[in-house]
Protein: RING-type domain-containing protein
Organism: Oryza brachyantha
Amino acid sequence: MEPAVVTRLFVGGVAVVVFIVGGLRCCAAPCYMAWRERRAAERRRQEVESTGRVLLAGDGEAELEQCMICCEENIAPEEELRFLPCSHGFHKQCIDKWRLQFSLACPLCRSQ
Ligand SMILES: [Zn+2]
Ligand SMILES: [Zn+2]
């Protein structure tokens, strides 16, 4: 092969590699970020799901006069409650939403 042809091939090859790598970086970064976010959200959801005890309000063990998140005082016996390790209880759906969106800490005593 003549040197000129080799150089052209080489330059062409480098251009293709740069193009592919550049393209990959542009597409892969948002995917990677989204993947990391999804994984973090999944872990958080699992932690929210696994913390504390879930009881029905009608259960003898569950004692809750008021859910301090929605300020509801008349808690129906069939409603699901979640009691955090600090022994504070809330509607399950209220505290799960709170912990998913705001903070994993108990809204009353701030313990994790
Ligand atoms: Zn509530
Ligand atoms: Zn608490």
Notes: The longest helix spans residues 3-50. The chain is about 50% helix and 10% strand. Residues 67, 69-70, 72, 90-91, 94 surround zinc ion (ligand 1) (CB under 6 Å).
